[in-house]
């Protein structure tokens, strides 16, 4: 039995009051709610693969894949379907239950590349993994095609607050983001949407972003919380490193206002100690991205053996594959 109700009518003041609590009180509240909705011993292990890298026409100021910034990231065309499926199989063998494919596109176009992505979705789905894609903006019809191919989740982060959005990206607006998320929902695909801290936003912006997520008619099933990965050559390369306690505070608040969602400790783990990550798990994070390639898209990330060792130290275990458990 759960006693904390899921609410979609949060106010900014309420979320601010949660966020501003003394840290230990906040973590205690989040950990308590986390245990009502989730098994606190289980962490979902996911793998993210860049299926098309760089050369993106957008100007997201944190991103090394934007064509206009001079970064060390190599442009790579859409990977062959067999290569992607082989990566997914490897990820599954290493304990991942969710496989996310990312393409550096502004939006999906109805062309042969999209047909190939549809084949990739079908192929990964056949492996019995949760399939997720992040491909940029999406129409309702395209979302339906992905759903019919077996797509489980679509990632489209808000990145930051509505008020701060234009400081970070000028080539699209916040409403475009919401529109794609609505198209994903209408198609019956689960929503993965969160944000990044360390972009130069205020605490109020962070709270406002959580408010947008927590007042959606249905909370995103998946909420990634990222710390800015500072990429050389991007406008934000010299931003200060995100304080680990800020990540803990953000994760705990997300956990309290969206109790049933999977809160993912995403980018920035490479700069966190094992103890700092443990605090994030205590605060309600219940997923990490890992893999043999030791990258998260195009930025460094801990490798799978290091992560498995960390989970073991902390008495945590990879979440079983729900699709396979259900099938059994
Ligand atoms: S975050 Fe995505 S949309 Fe923005 S520049 Fe990078 S690849 Fe393009």
Automatic annotation (TrEMBL):
<dbReference type="InterPro" id="IPR002684">
    <property type="entry name" value="Biotin_synth/BioAB"/>
</dbReference>
<keyword id="KW-0411">Iron-sulfur</keyword>
<comment type="subunit">
    <text>Homodimer.</text>
</comment>
<feature type="binding site">
    <location>
        <position position="192"/>
    </location>
    <ligand>
        <name>[2Fe-2S] cluster</name>
    </ligand>
</feature>
<keyword id="KW-0001">2Fe-2S</keyword>
<feature type="binding site">
    <location>
        <position position="56"/>
    </location>
    <ligand>
        <name>[4Fe-4S] cluster</name>
    </ligand>
</feature>
<feature type="binding site">
    <location>
        <position position="132"/>
    </location>
    <ligand>
        <name>[2Fe-2S] cluster</name>
    </ligand>
</feature>
<dbReference type="GO" id="GO:0051539">
    <property type="term" value="F:4 iron, 4 sulfur cluster binding"/>
</dbReference>
<dbReference type="GO" id="GO:0051537">
    <property type="term" value="F:2 iron, 2 sulfur cluster binding"/>
</dbReference>
<feature type="binding site">
    <location>
        <position position="63"/>
    </location>
    <ligand>
        <name>[4Fe-4S] cluster</name>
    </ligand>
</feature>
<dbReference type="GO" id="GO:0005506">
    <property type="term" value="F:iron ion binding"/>
</dbReference>
<feature type="binding site">
    <location>
        <position position="60"/>
    </location>
    <ligand>
        <name>[4Fe-4S] cluster</name>
    </ligand>
</feature>
<keyword id="KW-0408">Iron</keyword>
<keyword id="KW-0004">4Fe-4S</keyword>
<keyword id="KW-0093">Biotin biosynthesis</keyword>
<keyword id="KW-0808">Transferase</keyword>
<dbReference type="GO" id="GO:0009102">
    <property type="term" value="P:biotin biosynthetic process"/>
</dbReference>
<dbReference type="InterPro" id="IPR007197">
    <property type="entry name" value="rSAM"/>
</dbReference>
<comment type="pathway">
    <text>Cofactor biosynthesis; biotin biosynthesis; biotin from 7,8-diaminononanoate: step 2/2.</text>
</comment>
<protein>
    <recommendedName>
        <fullName>Biotin synthase</fullName>
        <ecNumber>2.8.1.6</ecNumber>
    </recommendedName>
</protein>
<feature type="domain" description="Radical SAM core">
    <location>
        <begin position="41"/>
        <end position="269"/>
    </location>
</feature>
<dbReference type="Pfam" id="PF06968">
    <property type="entry name" value="BATS"/>
</dbReference>
<dbReference type="Pfam" id="PF04055">
    <property type="entry name" value="Radical_SAM"/>
</dbReference>
<dbReference type="InterPro" id="IPR013785">
    <property type="entry name" value="Aldolase_TIM"/>
</dbReference>
<feature type="binding site">
    <location>
        <position position="100"/>
    </location>
    <ligand>
        <name>[2Fe-2S] cluster</name>
    </ligand>
</feature>
<keyword id="KW-0479">Metal-binding</keyword>
<comment type="function">
    <text>Catalyzes the conversion of dethiobiotin (DTB) to biotin by the insertion of a sulfur atom into dethiobiotin via a radical-based mechanism.</text>
</comment>
<dbReference type="InterPro" id="IPR010722">
    <property type="entry name" value="BATS_dom"/>
</dbReference>
<dbReference type="InterPro" id="IPR058240">
    <property type="entry name" value="rSAM_sf"/>
</dbReference>
<dbReference type="GO" id="GO:0004076">
    <property type="term" value="F:biotin synthase activity"/>
</dbReference>
<dbReference type="InterPro" id="IPR024177">
    <property type="entry name" value="Biotin_synthase"/>
</dbReference>
<keyword id="KW-0949">S-adenosyl-L-methionine</keyword>
<feature type="binding site">
    <location>
        <position position="264"/>
    </location>
    <ligand>
        <name>[2Fe-2S] cluster</name>
    </ligand>
</feature>
<dbReference type="InterPro" id="IPR006638">
    <property type="entry name" value="Elp3/MiaA/NifB-like_rSAM"/>
</dbReference>
<comment type="similarity">
    <text>Belongs to the radical SAM superfamily. Biotin synthase family.</text>
</comment>
């Amino acid at each position: 039995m759960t006693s904390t109700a899921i609410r979609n009518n949060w106010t900014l003041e309420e979320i601010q009051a949660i966020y501003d609590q003394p840290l230990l009180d906040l973590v205690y509240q989040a950990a308590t709610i986390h245990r009502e909705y989730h098994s606190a011993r289980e962490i979902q292990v996911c793998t993210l693969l860049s299926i098309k890298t760089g050369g993106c026409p957008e100007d997201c100021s944190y991103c090394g894949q934007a064509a206009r910034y001079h970064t060390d990231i190599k442009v790579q065309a859409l990977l062959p379907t067999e290569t992607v499926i082989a990566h997914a199989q490897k990820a599954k063998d290493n304990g991942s239950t969710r496989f996310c494919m990312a393409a550096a596109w502004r939006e999906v176009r109805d062309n042969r590349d999209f047909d190939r992505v549809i084949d990739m979705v079908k192929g990964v789905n056949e492996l019995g993994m949760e399939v997720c894609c992040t491909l940029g903006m999406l129409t309702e019809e395209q979302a339906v095609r992905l759903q019919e191919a077996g797509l489980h989740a679509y990632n489209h982060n808000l990145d930051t607050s509505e008020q701060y959005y234009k400081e970070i990206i000028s080539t699209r607006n916040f409403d475009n983001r919401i529109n794609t998320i609505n198209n994903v929902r209408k198609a019956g695909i689960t929503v993965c949407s969160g944000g990044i801290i360390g972009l130069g936003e205020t605490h109020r912006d962070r709270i406002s972003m959580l408010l947008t997520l927590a007042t959606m008619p249905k909370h995103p099933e998946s909420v990634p919380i990222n710390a800015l990965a500072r990429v050389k050559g991007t406008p934000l390369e010299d931003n200060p490193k995100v304080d680990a306690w800020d990540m803990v505070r953000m994760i705990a608040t997300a956990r309290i206002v969206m109790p049933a969602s999977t809160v993912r400790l995403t980018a920035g783990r490479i700069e966190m100690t094992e103890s700092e990550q443990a605090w994030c798990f205590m605060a309600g994070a219940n997923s990490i991205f890992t893999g043999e390639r030791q990258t998260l898209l195009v930025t460094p990330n801990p490798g799978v053996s290091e992560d498995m060792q960390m989970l073991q130290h902390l008495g945590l275990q990879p979440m079983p594959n729900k699709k396979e458990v259900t099938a059994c």
